[in-house]
Amino acid sequence: MxxxxxxxxxxxxxxxxxxxxxxxGTRPSLDPVAFAAEHPGLIDFVEYGxxxxxxxxxxxxxxxxxxxxxxxxxxxxxLEEESDIDDHWLSGTRRAAxxxxxxxxxxxxxxxxxxPRDQGHGLLLPPILTRDSAEITARGVRHIRQQVGKxxxxxxPPSLYFLGDLHILDYFRLVxxxxxxxxxxxxxxxxxxxxxxxxxxxxxxxxVPFDSVVEIHVAGGGEVTTEDGFSYLEDDHRxxxxxxxxxxxxxxxxxxxxxxxxxxxxxHNPPDRVVSGFERLHRLFGxxxx
Length: 290
Ligand SMILES: [Fe+2]
Prior knowledge:
The protein is α/β, with parallel strands linked by helices. The protein contains eight helices and ten strands. It has a single domain (15-289), classed as Alpha-Beta Barrel (TIM Barrel), CATH 3.20.20. The chain has helices spanning 32-38, 58-65, 87-100, 131-148, 168-179, 187-196, 243-252, 275-289; strands at 17-23, 45-50, 69-74, 104-108, 151-155, 183-186, 213-219, 222-225, 231-234, 261-265. It has an eight-stranded parallel sheet. Bound molecules: fe (ii) ion. Residues 155, 186, 217, 265 line the site of fe (ii) ion.
């Protein structure tokens, strides 16, 4: 595969607004065309999650056909494993992003699969939080950016357990610095991390690389306590967003000068249960822009 021209400054990327997530062929999944018709002005774009094998589904093709804006969320590449970024994945991802007209691509950083890639693995092991790992991930991000010709936003993934000596925000700050590129900050995943290390949700704000945050994810979740008393935050994309995540959203969104998009990851919920979440995000993003 021949190298493509690198994209221009990420600060010049278009502002997409507040969007909804959908995922290839998953049912139930929010139908963006029907949702937008029922609730005009509530979603500005759709973030479509897929892998090279599944490609685009009918629902997202319908959205694109009527002129809807999109981003592409990969679910199948190991940014922390250089050999996984092969020509098959690069060409398939570039094709999907171009068909969608996505201004950038994004996806959780870590290991989506262990061993050979196969459809629907979805393992998603978090990266090892060390400088060595951040250097490998940053090289992967740069390579994809050059080959796909679009900005690549690595996302902090969800996990209750991490190895390594870095805070997850320090890890992604490093990836951003080393790749000279932007990141995607998932606030539900950050809330889970903060809870897992026994810290308050907003105690690590000084570690956020605010200038590098181009996209933010907000998702529903809640408290779970196991039979033996272990308590944690579940990232199940339910309709209700946890107070820890709202606290992060209110503290971080106004401080990101290059923020272009906020996705409410709510694809599995009945539309009427997520309207208030979208409305709150529009108010937050609108106020931040003022
Ligand atoms: Fe996310």
